C-alpha cells in the first residue's frame, strides 16, 4: 500500500526534473488511456494527477514523490490526433529525451486500453522502448468498461503480439481506476523493485 504521495514538480525540460537519486517509475500510453486516473487510484488520491474526459490533459512531465522513497511520473500521452504536428513532435521529443535521461528509471509502465484490440501506435512505442533498452511492463486499463471475457481476449491478443515481437511475454497487470482493480498487484511489484 502507498501511504504518502506528494506532487514535486512539473517540467517540459528533463534537465529540470528532480535529481535522479531515487527509483523512478513512469506512466505512459495513448492520450486518454487513463494514466493520471491510474496514478490517483494507486495513491488513493482524488486529484493528485489532473484527469479529463478530453485527451491531451497532461502536457508536462509530472513528478510525484511516493512514501519518501520513489518517484512516480505522469507523462503526456502519445497519439493524440487533434494536436498539431509541431506540438506532437515537441511532446514526443520531450518524452523521449526524458526517458533516455533518467538512469534511475526502473520501469516504464506502458498503459494499454483493455477495450481495444492491439493498436499499432502502442506496439510501435513498445518496440521503441525495447530498442532503447528501457525495461517496461504493461498495464491494461479500464477493465471495468466491459465483461471479463472481452478483457481477457484483448489482453491475450496483445500478449500474442508481444510473443511475435519478442518471443516473450512482458510482465502485465489488468487494472481499473474506477474499481481499484490491480492496485495491490501493481503496487507490490513496484515496491519490490524499489527495495532491491
Ligand atoms: P492524457 O493526460 O490526456 O494523456 O490522458 P490520461 O491517460 O491521463 O487519461 P485520464 O486519466 O485523464 O483519463 C481519461 C478518461 O478516462 C477520464 O474521463 C477518466 O475518468 C476515464 N478513465 C480512466 N481510467 C478509467 C477506468 O479505469 N475506468 C473507467 N470507467 N474510466 C476511466
Ligand atoms: Mg493525464
TrEMBL record:
GO terms for biological process: division septum assembly. Keywords: Cell cycle, Cell division, GTP-binding, Magnesium, Metal-binding, Nucleotide-binding, Septation. Its cofactor is Mg(2+). InterPro entries: G_ENGB_dom, GTP-bd, GTP-bd_ribosome_bio_YsxC, P-loop_NTPase. Residues 21-196 form the EngB-type G domain. It comes from the Bacteria. CDD domains: YihA_EngB (cd01876). Necessary for normal cell division and for the maintenance of normal septation. Belongs to the TRAFAC class TrmE-Era-EngA-EngB-Septin-like GTPase superfamily. EngB GTPase family. HAMAP family: GTPase_EngB. NCBIfam families: GTPase_YsxC. This is Probable GTP-binding protein EngB. The gene is engB.
Amino acid at each position: 500500500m502507498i501511504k504518502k504521495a506528494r506532487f514535486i514538480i512539473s517540467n517540459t525540460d528533463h534537465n529540470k526534473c528532480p535529481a535522479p537519486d531515487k527509483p523512478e517509475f513512469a506512466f505512459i500510453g495513448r492520450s486518454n488511456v487513463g494514466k493520471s486516473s491510474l496514478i490517483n487510484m494507486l495513491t488513493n488520491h482524488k486529484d493528485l494527477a489532473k484527469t479529463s474526459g478530453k485527451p491531451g490533459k497532461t502536457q508536462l512531465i509530472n513528478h510525484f514523490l511516493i512514501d519518501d522513497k520513489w518517484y512516480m511520473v505522469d507523462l503526456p500521452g502519445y497519439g493524440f490526433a487533434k494536436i498539431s504536428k509541431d506540438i506532437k513532435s515537441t511532446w514526443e521529443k520531450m518524452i523521449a529525451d526524458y526517458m533516455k535521461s533518467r538512469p534511475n528509471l526502473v520501469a516504464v509502465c506502458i498503459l494499454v486500453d483493455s477495450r481495444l484490440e492491439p493498436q499499432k501506435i502502442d506496439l510501435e512505442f513498445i518496440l521503441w522502448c525495447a530498442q532503447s533498452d528501457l525495461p517496461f511492463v504493461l498495464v491494461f486499463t479500464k477493465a471495468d468498461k466491459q465483461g471479463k471475457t472481452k478483457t481477457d481476449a484483448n489482453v491475450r491478443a496483445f500478449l500474442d503480439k508481444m510473443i511475435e515481437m519478442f518471443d516473450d511475454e512482458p510482465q502485465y497487470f489488468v487494472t481499473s481506476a474506477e474499481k481499484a482493480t490491480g492496485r495491490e498487484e501493481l503496487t507490490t511489484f513496484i515496491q519490490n523493485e524499489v527495495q532491491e
